[in-house]
Amino acid sequence: MGRKITIEPVTRVEGHGKVTIQLDPQGNVTDSRLHIVEFRGFERFVQGRPYWEAPVLVQRLCGICPVSHHLAAVKAMDVIVGVGPDKLTPTGEKMRRLMHYGQMFQSHALHFFHLVSPDLLFGVDADPAIRNVIGVAIKHQDLAVQGVMMRKFGQEIIQATAGKKIHGTGAIPGGINKNLSIEERDKFLKGPDPLNIDKMIAWAQAALDLFKDYHKKNKDFIDGFATFPSSHLSLVRKDGAYDAYHGVLRAVDSEGKKILNDVDYQDYLKYVGEEVKSWSYMKFPYLKSIGKKDGWYRVGPLARLNTCDFMPTPLAQKEFEEFKAYTKGKPNNMSMHMHWARLIELLEAGEEIKNLLNDPDLQKSDLVATGTKCHEGVGLIEAPRGTLFHHYRINDDDQIVMANLIVSTTNNNEPMNRAVNWVANNVISGKPEITEGMLNTVEVAIRAYDPCLSCATHAMGRMPLEVSLVDDEGNILDSKRK
Amino acid sequence: MKEIKFKIDGKDCVGKSGQTIVEAAKDNGIYIPTLCHFEGLKPAGTCRICTVKVGGRNMAACTTPVAEGMVIENKTSEIEDMRKAIIEMLFVEGNHMCPTCEKSGNCELQALGYIYTMMVPRFPYLFPTRSVDASIPRLYIDRNRCVQCLRCVRGVVTADGKRVFGLVNRGGKAAISADKDLAAALTDEQAQKAMDLCPVGAILKKGVGFKIPIGKRKYDNKPIGSDL
Question: Of A14, A123, A7, A85, which Cα lies nearest the Cα of A457?
C-alpha cells in the first residue's frame, strides 16, 4: 500500500505552505510537491484605488519585507508619473536606496540568525525542542544578541527613511517624502556600541566567517544537499555590478551563458510568462524564450551573485571573489550556498548603508521630481528573497485598472519544488522509517530559499507541524503533531 | 458684545452673546470634541460628537448658543462613553482602512478614536458597499470613508455662491456627490481646500499622496484638542 507524507505547515519560513510526498508500497518516492495553500488577492483589490496609494497599500502583503513591495510599486508609479529611474532627484533615489539596504540588512540577519542558525548550530536532526531560536538564545547568547541587534539596526534605518519600521510611507511617486537629518545620520554612524554601522559591518563579516567555518567542516552537506543545475535571474547594474535597487534584467543558464541579456524590465512581459497549476495558489514563472518546461529559474542571493560581474563595495567584492573561485567562475548551483551568498549580501548591504550615510545628498531638500503622466508602469527590485515584479495600468481617472505582481518567492516556486524533490529522493525514498529529522531536511531545503509564502500568495498565522500517513485511497493511517 | 456667565463641569466661564457652547468653551480653555464643526462654516450639528448636557438634556454644543447661567456637563463618564459610542458607530458604518489611507495621521476621526482609546468597537462592522468617484479632474471621492459631516457641502462653494457638493439619497443610502461641471471647474487651490475641509479621507486631491512624512503629520505628536 502506498503512503503520502504531508508536512504542514513548513516551519521557520515566512508564511504557510505544506509539502506532500507520495510513496509507493516499497517506500520509494513517486511524487513530491510544495503547495502554497493560502490566497489573498491583492492584485484584484488594488483595482479602483488611486495610483499614488498603491505603494502604501500593496506593502501590506508582507510584514517581513514590506519595503520591497513599497519600492517596487513606487518605481512602477515613477514611470506612470513620468519620472523614470534616471530622473529622480539624488536625494529621492539615495533615500530609497538607504531604505532598501536597511531592509536587506534586517531581513538577511533575521533569516540567518533566527531561522537558519538552529540547523547549523545544532544539526538538522537535533531535538526540535532545542533546534530553534530560543535554543540559540540559550546556548549561543552572543550570536542571538547579534541577530537581534542587526535586525534592530536595519529596522531603524527603515524607520528613518520610511517613517515606520513596518509599513511606512516614505517613497512617493517621483521621489521621497523626507530626507535624513544630521541627527538621524549620526545615530547610525556614531551610535553607541553595538548600534553603529561599523559594528554592524564587523558582525556581518563575523556571520560570514561562521558560515565559512561550518562549510569547511560540513563540505558534503553544504555542497551536495539539494544541488541541481538551474538558470538564474536578477537585476544587475548597467555595467554588470551587483545592484539590489535598480538595473537591467539578466539571466544566465547553469553554465553561465547569458540567456537574457541585460534587457529593460519595462518589457518583462516579452521575456517572462507565468504558468498556473491546479495544486498550488502559487504560479510558476518561466522564461518565454526557453518555454514552460525548462524555462524556470532561480532568484535571490545565489542568483544575484551568479548573474552579476562584481560587487560594488570592497569587502563584499573580496568575499565575492572567493565565492566565485569556489565554482571556478561558473554559476553556483548549490542550494545551501544560498546562505553563503546571502551573507555576502548582508555585508554588502552594510557597506552600502555606510556609503550612503556619508553622502551629503541625503541632507538635501529636493525630494520629488515631476514629469508627464502615462498609463502604465513596471517596477522591479531585488527584494531580499529575489526579483520582485510590480506592473500597473491606470485609467484616465488615475485609478488602477490592472495589477500584476510576480513575487520573489513565486519566481523560486519550481526551484523549491526541485529542492523538495531532491530531498524526497535522496533522503526519504526507500527508508523503512521516516524520522522527524528527515522531515526537517525537507524544510531545510525550502528554508535555503528564505521563502515568503505570505507574499507569494498569502498566509497569516501559524499552525503546528502535522505529518500524516495516508494510504492510496486517502485514508489517514497515522498522524503526528509537534 | 454682552458678557455671559456660565459653568462647564463646575468651572466658572465667561462667554459672549452669540457664541456657541463649543466656541465659548474654547475661549475658556475647555475642549469639546467636534467632527462636523469647522471654524468659519455655519454649524450643522450632524455628527453629535460635541454632545453636552444642559439642564439634564443632550444638546449639540456646536449649534447651541451659550446662555446666561447655563450649567453644562461636558466631561462626565456618561457623556464621554456616549461620544466614544458615536465614534465607534462612525467607524463601523463605513469602510475605514486607516493603514492605507493617506489622511492617516491627519484624520480627525482617527484622532478622536485615539483620544477615546477606541480599541474594538462595541457594534458589529457593517462593511457597506460604497462607491468611489474618480471622474472629477482634481479630486478623488471615496465614499467608503465619508462620515457625512457635510463640511464639503457647506464649505466648497463657487465664486457665485453655488455649492459644489450635495447629499443625494436618503437614510442609509445617503451619499456625498459632486456637481460634475462645478467640480470640474475647481482650481488646484480649491481642490486642496476641499481635501483640507474633509475631516477624513473621503475627499482627496489627485496626484499627491503621503507627502507629509510620518512623525510630521498633524496628530502624530499631539492629540486632537490639545492645542487649544
Answer: A14
**Residue B21: inside a domain:** yes
Q: State whether B71 and B112 are in the same domain.
A: no
B215 touches chain A (CB under 8 A): yes
pTM for the whole structure: 0.91
Which residue among B52, B75, B98 closes a domain? B75
Minimal C-alpha gap between B65 and chain A (Å): 42
Contact (CB, 8 A) for B118 and B84: yes
Judgement on whether residues B68 and B123 belong to the same structural domain of the protein? no
- pLDDT of the residue at A37: 59
A267 Cβ contact partners less than 8 Å away, ≥ 6 residues apart: none
Describe chain B by its helix, strand, coil percentages, rounded to 5. 25, 20, 55
Radius of gyration of chain B (CA): 18
3-state secondary structure of A79: helix
Domain co-membership, B159 together with B95: yes
State pLDDT tens for residues A170-208.
999 999 999 999 999 999 999 999 999 999 999 999 999
Q: Do the Cβ atoms of A73 and A55 come closer than 8 Å? A: yes
Asked if A53 lies within 8 A of B211 by C-beta distance, the reply is: no
What CATH number corresponds to the domain at position B27?
Answer: 3.10.20.740
| Same domain (yes/no): B62, B118 | no
Tell me if A57 and B212 make a contact (CB, 8 A cut-off): no
> Does residue B136 sit within a domain?
yes
* Per-residue pLDDT at A480 exceeds 70: no
Distance CA(A309)–CA(A303), nearest Å, equals 12
In order of start, what are the domains of chain A with their CATH numbers? 3-40+416-481 (no CATH), 47-88+369-403 (no CATH), 90-225+334-364 (1.10.645.10)
Residues B20 and B97 in one domain: no
Is residue A9 reached through a cis peptide bond, with omega within 30 degrees of 0 on the bond before it? yes
Q: How far apart are CA A269 and CA A1, in angstroms?
A: 46
The edge-to-edge listing of strands for the beta sheet with A386-394 is: A376-383, A386-394, A400-406
Strands B51-54 and B71-73: antiparallel
Alpha carbon distance B219, A255 (integer Å): 57
Per-residue pLDDT tens for B48-70?
999 999 999 999 999 999 999 99
In whole angstroms, what is the distance from residue A125 CA to residue B9 CA?
69
In chain A, residues with a C-beta closer than 8 Å to the C-beta of B106 are: none
User: Dihedral angle at the C-alpha atoms of A13, A14, A15, A20, nearest 10 degrees?
Assistant: -20
**B187 is in which domain, residue-wise?**
85-205
- B209 touches A at CB < 8 Å: yes
Indicate whether B224 belongs to any domain. Answer: no
Which of B27, B55, B75 is the last residue before a domain boundary? B75
